[in-house]
Amino acid sequence: MRKFYLIFLFFSFSIFGQNKNPFTLDVSLLRGNALPHTEDMYHLVNGHPDGIMVNFGKRTDGSKEWHQAYNYPEYGGYFLYQDFKSQPLGQNYAVGAFYNFYFWKRQLQFKISQGIAFTTNPYDKVDNSKNKAFGSKLMGNTNFGFTYDNQTLFKNIGFHAGILFTHYSNGRVKSPNSGINTYLLNVGVNYNFSKDFNRIADTTLVKKSYKEPIKYNVILRTGVNENPIVNSGQFPFYHIGFYADKRLNRKSALQFGAELFLTQSIKEYIKYFSVAYPNQNVDPNTDYKRIGVFIGHELIINRISLEAQLGYYVYQPFKKDIPIYDRVGIKYYFTDKIFLGFTIKTHLFLAEALEFGIGYRI
Asked: What integer pLDDT is reported at residue 45 of this predicted model?
C-alpha cells in the first residue's frame, strides 16, 4: 500500500510538475493509538493503529470573497487507510472531502474532513462477535488535524508533521455501534503542481456588514436507526426543530432553539427493556418522545457552513440515555431561505443517529 502511493506521488511529479495550476498532492504516514470510550472497547485496543492518508486539493486564489475571508484555504478529496492492529477491528478505507485552513503565516494548518468508510471486519454474531465498534460495513468518517506545514522545503516539495484525530461510526443505523476514535502522528510530504501560483487580493470588494436581525428556522431531520439491542430492527425517526439564529459577522452565527424527537426505535427499546429488566420497573407504555433545548454555532464559509449544537432534554420519560446530547454536521444553502443538512447526533461519544435534514429560514 505505501509503495503504491509513493509511486503515485513521483508519477504526479513528472506529469504535472511543469504545469501552472492550483492543485496540490500530499501523502502522510500515520501511527498512533485508539481511544477506548466504553468498557467493551478495551479488549479491542491491543496495538498501535497505523495507516496512510492521501489528499488531492485545490488552492484558492482570491477570486471569490470567501477565499480571502478564510485566508486562502485549500479544499479537495481524500483517501484514508487505517490498520487498527486488532483482528476484530481489521482495516478501514475511507474517501471524502476536506478543507485545510491556514494560520501563523500559513505554517499552521487545521484540517477538517468528512467522508464514507468501509471496514473489512464488521460485527458478526458468529464470526466476529467481539467487534462492538462497527455494526455495519459502511460508516461515516470524520477527521480533524493540526499540522506544521512547510510547502517550500525544496522547490515544489514541502514537508508537514502534526497530529490527526479520526472517528468512525455508522450513527447507529445498525447495532452495535460504539464507534472508535484514534489519535495519530502525521508525517508526510506535499507537492504543489505550480511553484508560480499567485493569489489575487481583490481590493475592489466593497466591505459590508453581515449582521442581521434575528432569523427563525424550522427543520425536519430524518433517517433510520436501531436501538442498542443487536438485530432489533431499523426504524425511521423524525426530529423536528425550531430555532432562532443571530448572525454576528462574516463567519459566525449563534443559535438557540427547541426540538421534538420522535425516534421509533426507542419505542421498541422501552418494550424490550420492560421485559428484560423487570427489576427496573419500566412501564412498557412509557412515552418514547423527547423534547430538547439547545444552543449552537454556525461557521459560515460560502453556501456551505459547519454546524455544532449542544442540547439538554427537558422532557425525557425514558432515561436510559444521559440528558445531554450534541450534534455536528454540514449545511448547504440552496437559497437564502432553503437549506439541506447532514448531521450526526450523539450522547457524548455514543452516536444515536445520522440525520438528513431539510430546513427553511425565515
From this structure: 78
